[in-house]
Amino acid sequence: MKSGAVFIPTAWDCTLKIYDRARTLAQQFKKEVDFPVNLHFTDVSRYTVDCGLFMQPEYVVAEDYLQGKFLKWCSNYGYISPEAKSDDAIMPAFVHWSWVHTKGQEMVCDLQGTRDENGYYLTDPVILSLNNKYGETDVGIEGMAMFFMNHKCNDICKRWRRPRSESFKGKISRETLAACKHMQDDVNNGTSFTSDMKFTQTIKDIVKKVFLRIAEAQELS
């Protein structure tokens, strides 16, 4: 969604790019991970709306309606639903895999949609990136860090490498780590937040360096 009318088609370019990238990663995930469930990101198209004589056309994006109960399994800032920790363990595993697959450069998250016996049908994804290239919802390294603070690896992803809190001992102040823990508690209590924790540039540089070192390691840990 956008605030107000959209009068230029390129305003939706980032949205379409996110869907395309998420869809590509989901297809690759299916090939690489031995799991009998499909992840489908909905097809989304851009349309021109005729607003009448003497008025500029507006531009919207639309997708097929998703049938069934709508669920949110994780957010772009570390929230993971109880269902994703049990019956739908594939959801956080896919988020984890996307980080490993891209060597720490990107992470697909904000997974939501419906499911049936044939798989999951997902809409409105977010992609986090180290250089924040995927629009306003891309909260970058902060979102990646909050995900791994909350994520408990399951049978699907337990062998994949990941950053752990002990990786930052002696590198980040206790005050910052305590603030992360406080934010983690807020994240666990809901899917949306009035404010997100922003790292200073110094902290960002430290976290990125540690994350990349782990993500680029040759061996799974």
TrEMBL record:
Residue ranges occupied by any Alpha-type protein kinase domain in the UniProt entry: 1-177
Domain of life: Eukaryota
Molecular function terms from GO: ATP binding; protein serine/threonine kinase activity
Signal sequence interval, chain numbering: none
Tagged with keyword Nucleus: no
Keyword list, A-Z: ATP-binding, Kinase, Nucleotide-binding, Serine/threonine-protein kinase, Transferase
A Pfam family hit: Alpha_kinase
PANTHER family per UniProt: ALPHA-TYPE PROTEIN KINASE DOMAIN-CONTAINING PROTEIN (PTHR45992:SF11), EUKARYOTIC ELONGATION FACTOR 2 KINASE-RELATED (PTHR45992)
The protein, known as: Alpha-type protein kinase domain-containing protein
Organism from which the protein derives: Amphimedon queenslandica (Sponge)
